[in-house]
Amino acid sequence: MKLRSAYLASALAAATVIAAPASAQQSDRVTLSSMGGHVMGNPLAKHKLTEYMSYTCNHCAAFEAESHQQLKTNFINKNHVSFEIRNLILNPIDLTAAMLARCGGRTRFFGNHHALLAQQSTWLKKFQSVSPEAMATMNDGTVPERLRKIARASGLDELMKGRGYTAPQIDACLSDKVEQDKILAMTKHATVTLKLTGTPSFTLGGKPLAKVHSWGALQPKLAVLPQ
User: Which Gene3D superfamilies does the annotation name (predicted)?
Assistant: First the structure.
């Protein structure tokens, strides 16, 4: 999906890496990178894979569905690849979903991330069916107020309630300026520093992988990495 974000902004001091407790599988480990992205697997792994993604990108949803188990089993749990998710925000509903994905801290992130992408077609379709009159009000109010309107109109709030979050918790997540700044800083890094123009895009060891935007294109590159 091509970039068309109106939400780019500069922000974010480096976030502290938070170590996860040891677990039986490396894919159960979740830490935060210095940029605030969520890292699955050994944060000291030899090969660091990063996805820059959008929650409104159908190719990102396809990548998640196709790679979810294979990436964990064949690469992350073998301890030589870590996998980080960073945001490349394309539009206001994408920002809303990204804020909700971060609800509940690092241990809840990948579950939220997977659920949002698995149900993407449902909540996007609901948002796209909003009346023109209601859509005209989406840009009224503060940023948190706008995000709450989008969450209600799309059913993202109900999705999160189904995952055990209360309405006050959802509102608090959508109002969290610190988390918003992290998301926008990741987007700025992707577009300004790395010059990425679409989602999903990937870096390996911090270097963009040219013409790799799907699991089918990424998997062969991971398969030849030394363990």
Answer: 1.10.40.110, Glutaredoxin (3.40.30.10)
Answer yes or no: is 62 within a domain: yes
User: Number of folded domains in the chain?
Assistant: 1
Q: What are the helix (H) ranges across the chain?
A: 58-74, 92-101, 106-118, 120-128, 132-135, 143-154, 156-162, 167-174, 177-188, 215-223
Measured CA distances, 41 to 81, 94, 98, 124, 188 (Å): 7, 25, 21, 30, 25
126 is a domain residue? yes
Q: pTM for the whole thing?
A: 0.88
CATH number at 42 reads 3.40.30.10
pLDDT digits (tens, 9 = 90+) for 89-120: 999 999 999 999 999 999 999 999 999 999 99
Task: Name the strands in the sheet holding 38-40, side by side, starting at the edge strand that comes first in the sequence.
Answer: 30-32, 38-40, 81-87, 47-53, 201-204, 207-208
In a domain, 66, yes or no: yes
Domain span at residue 142 reads: 26-223
